[in-house]
Write a structure and sequence with these properties.
Binds the lower part of the 30S subunit head. Binds mRNA in the 70S ribosome, positioning it for translation. The protein is about 30% helix and about 30% strand. It has about 240 residues and is an alpha/beta fold.
Length: about 240
């Protein structure tokens, strides 16, 4: 089962929380569609800002959007001008008031979304896929990951027939629910077609109870810069070596 299901959804309620936190009631469908529109717009608008995760929280008249990124300066802009502009753009999509929080990802090498996007951008830039993947794998393992697995699929190097190649290092136990495995799928749009990049990163194993609700150190305040705190969701402990 661990090989067939998205590793993040497989761990929801165990060690992972939801990226949308609200009670919809009778307006559940409308809120869900609005969330999809907000995420789609932000993914296109902040494509070059290394966005890792977008967390949406709702109250009656306020939508709080927390953007996790490794490059907060690109989103904030000079004196916070870009954040205010983005806020006005999002308020046009929804009728409610919008509050934007920016959270800095301190170790982007351990974030599957950022690693996959980096590999995809290099493939689009005509860099050899093997070189791009191997550099990403080495960088992730140096940052303290227990294991990483990367799968690249499509017309690799412009070949006539599409194929898949997988690169592994360390351990990525997909069946172990307490294993903190981050997963991402990013598409690279090349001249010969679409190349899919899948990344699994094992960041250790979680022991004890973990806070599932997204808790960020700068939550409740509109961020104008980086944050020195770490999200509670990123805390993990490595298993003891019994050898």
């Amino acid at each position: 089962m661990g090989q067939k299901v998205n590793p993040i959804s497989n761990r929801l309620g165990v060690i992972r929380g939801w990226d949308s936190n609200w009670y919809g009631g009778k307006k559940y469908g409308d809120n869900l569609l609005e969330d999809a529109k907000l995420r789609k717009y932000l993914e296109v608008r902040l494509a070059k800002s290394s966005v890792s995760r977008i967390v949406i929280e709702r109250t009656l008249k306020l939508i709080t959007i927390t953007i996790c990124t490794s490059r907060p300066g690109l989103i904030i802009g000079k004196g916070g001008a870009d954040v205010d502009k983005l806020k006005k753009e999002l308020m046009k999509i929804t009728d409610k008031d919008v509050q934007i929080n920016i959270f800095e990802v301190k170790r982007p090498e351990l974030d599957a979304q950022i690693v996959a996007a980096n590999i995809a951008r290099q493939i689009e830039g005509k860099i050899a896929y093997r070189r791009a993947v191997k550099m990403a794998v080495q960088s992730t393992m140096r940052s303290g990951a227990e294991g990483i697995k990367v799968q690249v699929s499509g017309r690799l190097n412009g070949a006539e027939m599409a194929r898949s190649e997988m690169f592994k290092e360390g351990r990525t136990p997909l069946h172990t629910l307490r294993a903190d495995i981050d997963y991402a799928l990013v598409e690279a749009h090349t001249k010969v077609g679409v190349v899919g990049v899948k990344v699994w990163i094992c960041r250790g194993e979680v022991y004890g109870k973990r806070e599932l609700a997204p808790v960020f150190a700068n939550s409740g305040k509109e961020s104008r810069g980086g944050n020195n705190g770490a999200p509670r969701g990123n805390r993990f402990r490595k298993p003891k070596n019994n050898r």
